[in-house]
Amino acid sequence: MFGGLPHGADEDTPVFVISVAAQLSGLHAQTLRSYDRHGLVSPGRTSGGGRRYSMRDIALLREVQRLSQEDGVNLAGIKRIIELENQVDALRARIAELTEELTAAYVTAEQTAAAVHASYRKDLVPLRQQTALVVWKPKPRR
């Protein structure tokens, strides 16, 4: 294990059983079950239905506890905060995607414009346009 996680696992890999997650988060296992029932933290499940928590879940458990204990937010409020934070994260990811698409579109447009300019005939000489004023004075009739 490296940094508390098995080799190849990242912060989203569900690896901790409920007793270890409770110890890491500083909460009672029953509290973790309650948070799961309320939809605040949704751990992974084994084929037998056992909960498996990731490091991200542990961090979220700590944040739920902090909001509850230090800030006095009720569980419904905490759930809404989590939903809004997830929505903000999703929107930031979408902005990043759109920014990449826009950058690619600019590059394509610049390449297309360069190709058009490169296709101009080089043997043509621009004609300088001039304007002249001609005044016609007819001769009087006799």
Report what the structure shows.
The structure is a single chain. With 142 residues, the protein is mainly α. 54% of the residues lie in helices and 3% in strands. It has 4 helices and 2 strands; from the N terminus they run H-H-E-E-H-H. It has helices at 18-25, 29-37, 55-69, 75-118; strands at residues 44-45, 51-52. It has a two-stranded antiparallel ribbon with strand order 1-2. Helix 1 (18-25) crosses helix 3 (55-69). The longest helix has 44 residues, at 75-118. It is elongated and about 120 Å long. The chain starts with 17 loop residues before the first helix and ends in a 24-residue tail after the last helix. The mean pLDDT is 90.
Q: Helix-strand pattern, N to C?
A: HHEEHH
CA distance, first residue to last residue: 118 Å
> What form results from the Cα inertia axes?
elongated
The radius of gyration over CA amounts to 34 Å
- Helix fraction? 40-55%
Strand content: under 5%
> Kindly state the mean pLDDT as a whole number?
90
Unreliable stretches: none
Structural class: mainly alpha
Tally of strands: 2
Number of helices: 4
Give a brief description.
Keywords: Coiled coil, DNA-binding, Stress response. Residues 81-108 form a coiled coil. The protein is mainly α.
What attributes does this structure have?
coiled coil, two-stranded antiparallel ribbon, mainly alpha, 142 residues, stress response
Task: Please specify the SSE layout and strand pairing.
Blueprint (H helix, E strand, L loop, with lengths): L17 H8 L3 H9 L6 E2 L5 E2 L2 H15 L5 H44 L24
Antiparallel strand pairs: 1-2
Protein name: Heat shock protein transcriptional repressor HspR
Keywords: Coiled coil, DNA-binding, Stress response
InterPro entries: DNA-bd_dom_put_sf (IPR009061), MerR-type_HTH_dom (IPR000551), MerR_fam (IPR047057)
